[in-house]
Design the sequence.
């Protein structure tokens, strides 16, 4: 389940603190010079709206504050490694995914946008693409995803989406079928790891759109 976020708009068609990305998007779309950012707590968001946008530009506002003991228990990310993520505008909507070097954030592959997709499908495809990418390079690097659903789908070898196939997303489902066939016909030893967003911030492959 996605973590609840709070969206601050300093400049837009409407300003304030909002609890929905879709609502936030309506207030910033087509607004030249819109200023907005997401936060993981209501207190931080309400504090931010009273301040200046410039004070938060470039800062990671998505880390949950954990105790020293909790951070030690979680540990640190493994480098070098591959990180994958997906972004979807709407549900369903235009979806794309990519893979990056976890440390440098250098983009290694990207696909999309696909019409009428979902974030879960994108996360699934990103993981399978990453597995194939690493296997082709004979690499033993681990791969990170922040989606428990996608990780479980990959381990089961099937994209268990309920999204219906339509003429608009036929190309996307062709990719899904290819991914499922790859999992069926390939053996891999790559470690698939969960990116601990609450300790490390957004996954390096994040598209940074909200």
Sequence:
């Amino acid at each position: 389940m996605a973590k609840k976020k709070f969206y601050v708009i300093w400049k837009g068609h409407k300003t304030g603190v909002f609890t929905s990305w879709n609502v936030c998007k309506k207030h910033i779309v087509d607004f030249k010079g819109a200023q907005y950012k997401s936060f993981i707590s209501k207190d931080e968001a309400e504090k931010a709206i009273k301040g200046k946008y410039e004070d938060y530009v470039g800062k990671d506002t998505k880390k949950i504050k954990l105790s020293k003991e909790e951070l030690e228990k979680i540990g640190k990310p493994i480098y070098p490694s591959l990180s994958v993520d997906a972004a979807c505008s709407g549900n369903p909507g235009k979806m794309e995914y990519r893979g990056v070097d976890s440390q440098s954030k250098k983009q290694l592959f990207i696909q999309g946008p696909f019409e009428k997709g979902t974030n879960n499908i994108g996360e699934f495809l990103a993981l399978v693409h990453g597995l194939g990418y690493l296997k082709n390079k004979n690499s033993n690097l681990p791969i990170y995803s922040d989606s428990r659903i996608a990780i479980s789908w990959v381990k089961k070898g099937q994209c268990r989406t309920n999204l219906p196939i339509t003429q608009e997303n036929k190309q996307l489902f062709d990719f899904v079928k290819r991914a499922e066939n790859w999992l069926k016909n390939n053996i891999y030893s790559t470690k698939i790891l969960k990116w601990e967003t609450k300790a490390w911030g957004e996954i390096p492959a994040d598209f940074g759109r909200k």
